[in-house]
Sequence to fold (576 residues):
Amino acid sequence: MGIPVRQAVAVSGYLMKQKLKGNKRYPLVLMLEPLYRCNLACAGCGKIQHPESVLNTYLTPEQCWAAADECGAPVVSIAGGEPLVHPQIDEIVRGLVARKKFVYLCTNAILLERWLPKLTPSAYLTISVHMDGLRDLHDRMVDRAGTFDRAVAGIREAKRRGFRVSTNTTVFADSSPEQMGQLFTFLMEDLRVDGMMVSPGYDYPKAPDQRVFLRRPQMIETFRRIFALPGRRKWRFFHTPLFLEFLQGKQAMQCTAWGNPTRSVFGWQRPCYLMAEGYVPTFRQLIEETEWDRYGYGRDARCTNCMAHCGYEATAVKATMASPLEGIRAGAGALLGKGA
Amino acid sequence: MRTLVVAPTLREARMLSGDVLAARSPDAVLARLAQQPADVVLIAGICGGLDPSLAPGALVLSRRLVACGRPDLAPPDVLVEAARRALRTLRRPFVSSTLLSVDQPLATRRGKTDAWNTHGAAGVDMETYTLAEALAGRGVPWLALRAVLDPASAALPTAVAGWRGEQDERAIARAALRRPFDWPAYVRLALQSRTALGALARAVPAVVRAIDEIQDLAQAPSPDAAQRDLPIIAVR
Ligand code: SF4
Ligand code: SF4
Fold:
């Protein structure tokens, strides 16, 4: 893996506290969506199909901080839409870092160079850049030429300024294992990113192009081939070894949707980041009133092709904590920065 | 509504109250129905766990049945919804999910993981599909409820892989005596069996009561249930 040691220690402490308190369901990562507006329209995106009135609605910094306080997760992933379109994103990030939250600012990096001077490097802040492939594949997936080059320039500038930078790659039907391998090697060796995240695309019914999605058996096959490529040992992922094994079909896991609760402009989204069955005004209502047992692989048809980290990484983290052997494996990964 | 509870083994049947038939073969169930008709058949028993979040004693309510190379089967939504409501009031862990039927016990972790990845089934057993298929063929509404015996994370002792019915249990006991290293696994299995059968014994009467209260089996499913029954792909 390669999750920063400070974050690994903080998350372990948090998990232990939850265990001691006897909490059955607790959040690990708050998925914060302060807006749905985006400056791209990717083929596999299911987030931006809203009327203008919704796209024009942004959470205020105070609402974002209140959500972080209310749910208490140690990690906050700011997603969207494109967070850098939000005019107060620097303020939002500052407030979350001040609360000692490990913030992942997810971005397509089109506006990154413009925002970098307004952000401060911190051990609590990681800029997570959307990277779906090398130039041709990435620009095709995001449906705009030149986006790959902007993202690369943004990553280089962020690294130059001392930011921790990770990437977030979604694997689609068009992404061949070899292309993914080349991308990961480029990100690690040329751009020297601190770590990478990877997930198969979720088949959002609203996504403009349904042909881009893999089915579960194909996902497993693709990830097996990706992780069998030479050079794999040099890749560093911000994932637990268990999650990476799950992607290759070597570990059986059920989704832990409540591990990554989502707060959007509509409220707390039920049940997860990917599916929107409704919204509730408070985090407590989300946790206590949702019939969690109804969701997950085998339980709901809409979960059949979901192997996304927002559903399964929390399961992997919990399993890692529960097994001393897995804990040692993950700890060694964090310290040595090695891939699983 | 008159409900006949069908338990595949005598051990399971003894734990259940009401109108219970111990039978593994569809012919025995159909013969009993010919003598004494019932409106609904509830297939109840224990199963192997495939959904890794389920511990021994967790209940699996069938929303769908799968068996390799056979068409999927599904019980009427109205039965599933009634049973779900009843199980919720029990406050015991349960899921409404898929059940897989196979010819022999899935004894290894690897086998269970592969079955989970392929079918997305929460539990695996050896009888539900053939029983339900025969019932569906005669137009008898059915529902299946299983309690997890061995969780997905645990392998079964080697000799148990040869289990095809209660008649094999003596041979399994003899084989177990010859393998002392497996004894802890047998003790664990015996404890898990108590937990699973206990959970089943509490759940079945609640589900039977809920079925009794249904006025009309042809009732339209709730929109929610309809949404959930989009076809699930899961064949490799
Ligand atoms: S996937 Fe991300 S970058 Fe692409 S349109 Fe959706 S929100 Fe924007
Ligand atoms: S598996 Fe979990 S994260 Fe994925 S769509 Fe279903 S509930 Fe959401």
